[in-house]
Amino acid sequence: MSTLSSPAKITIAILGTVAVGSLSGLATANSIDTWYATLEKPFFNPPNWVFGPAWTILYILMGYAAGRVWSSTANAGLKRSALTAYVVQLLLNAAWSILFFALHAPLVALVEMLFLWATIIWCIRWFKQVDSLAWKLLLPYLLWVSFAAILNGAIVVLN
User: Fold this and answer.
1) 89 and 69 in contact (C-beta within 8 Å)?
2) How many C-beta neighbours within 10 Å does residue 65 have?
3) 21, 64, 120, 138: least buried by Cβ within 10 Å?
4) Rounded CA gap, 35 and 125, in Å?
5) CA 90, CA 99: separation in Å to the nearest integer?
């Protein structure tokens, strides 16, 4: 049994999620002004400055959702399944940045993003069984990843 309080679990989940996001940001940072700048992008590509704040907000929401699940009084097996889905989607999220930006492989990143999208849906379904708010906190993330998939696909087509 865990002796951490709910606020401690939520804080750890937020900080852990933001840390994974920051590592993804490191994979991205070196390519923004170099390789990424040379790519043809669709008319709906947001300015580069939008991505950092958007992802920071999403990572905080995601971490808060995971912390709520971790803190819930739901069955331990159910929580374990929900948090396993969360960790898997978070790892796929980080892998996308490496594939797209560090390895310069937009097509491979797009295929990987389809797995990420499906895994987010899987995570939402588990979170919905554990906490009535946690799953809703992942909806902005799902929408952003959906947009990012369209953007990634357009970049593949244009390049």
Assistant:
1) no
2) 29
3) 64
4) 37
5) 14
In angstroms, the CA 135 to CA 125 distance is 7
Task: Kindly list the distances between the CA atom of residue 71 and the CA atoms of 23, 42, 109, in Å, as whole numbers in the listed order.
Answer: 25, 42, 33
This prediction has a pTM of 0.94
Tokens of 42: 């669709």
Backbone phi, then psi, for 101, in 5-degree steps?
Answer: -90, -45
59-76 mean pLDDT = 97
Contact 101, 27 (CB under 8 A): yes
The residues spanned by each domain of the chain are 6-158
Residue 7 burial (CB count, 10 A)? 10
Using only the alpha carbons of the chain, give its radius of gyration. Answer: 16
pLDDT single digits (tens) 115-155: 999 999 999 999 999 999 999 999 999 999 999 999 999 99
The span from the CA of 55 to the CA of 26, in Å, is 13
Are 17 and 63 spatial neighbours (Cβ–Cβ below 8 Å)? Answer: yes
| CA torsion through residues 114, 81, 135, 89, sign | negative
* Contact by Cβ (8 Å): 112, 92: yes
Phi, psi of 48, deg, nearest 5: -55, -35
Residue 22 has pLDDT above 80, yes or no: yes
